[in-house]
Design brief:
Number of strands: 3
Largest sheet: 3 strands, antiparallel
Structural class: alpha+beta
Distance between the termini: 66 Å
Number of domains: 1
Number of helices: 3
Oligomer: single chain
Strand content: 5-15%
């Protein structure tokens, strides 16, 4: 009997996280082996369509992010965290603020027969009052 797809993905996610942890531990001792662990974790994640933590490794050169290989900055204008790799100078931006009140997609909550222009007209009339 085949294992359930969610179970396989969960196992792959755990194995990839373990490989990235081993890469961080191995970095000061053997850089080549650490890069290999990152490479294996990425292959595993791609094979099983699992997302890896973007703060765990450099996407460009495959170096695990540890204190010696990483520079972190906050960009207030873009509301992102900037991760700069010290090995290859690649930059990676990760948003740190998410919008909590995201409006529903257009067209999903409309009443039958209503139009966008009618909704706009009602909105402008409410603003005038």
């Amino acid at each position: 009997m085949k294992p359930h797809k969610a179970d396989v993905r969960q196992e792959a996610r755990e194995q990839a996280a373990h490989l990235l942890e081993m890469a961080r531990d191995m970095w000061p001792k053997d850089e080549k082996l650490a890069r290999r662990y990152v490479h294996l974790a990425r292959q595993l994640a791609m094979r099983h369509r699992v997302h890896l933590d973007p703060r765990a490794y450099c996407k460009a050169c495959g170096v695990p992010f540890v204190a010696a290989t990483l520079k972190v900055r906050l960009e207030r204008r873009n509301q992102t965290v900037l991760y700069a790799c010290q090995q290859c100078n690649a930059l990676r931006r990760v948003p740190y603020l998410r919008k909590t009140n995201v409006p529903p997609k257009a067209g999903l909550n409309r009443q039958p027969g209503s139009t966008k222009s009618g909704a706009r007209q009602a909105k402008t009339q409410n603003e005038k009052e």
